[in-house]
Please model this.
Amino acid sequence: MRRKDREITDLEKIVGIMQACQTVSVAFGGGAPYVIPMSYGFAQSGGRFTLYMHGAGEGEKIRRIQADPRAAFAMFTGNAVYGSGDAACSYSTSFDSVCGSGTIRILEDEAQKRAGLAAIMAHYAPERNFEFDEKMLRATCVMALDVEAISGKHHD
Model:
């Protein structure tokens, strides 16, 4: 990161940003750039992160995962515009962000799919426990992005 004064290296702060964000944008490989915003959940163990997303089991993102499992992601929160005056460069934004990259895979194992869906639901409704029936599990594609590189940034 060029601006080390804005870098966030504390994993607790990175987790806090990830908890505050509502959507992650995932960039898939496989030719021309393809980025899609997705609902997500995450798990952390020993300083390693896994992002979980879900969707249809067919379509562009699935084709791209099968062609090239490398992916990148970005999420941000607290976006606010500030500045004054007539000069364009006298305006800026304030935000916290987490970005990274890794390898994305489609989960086939029922227990792994349940764990991924539980992580997603815990992100949006942490006070509740959800059941996932077998029919819904079969119909839902659950993806896991194993994060290999992650960084946080605070901009104000």
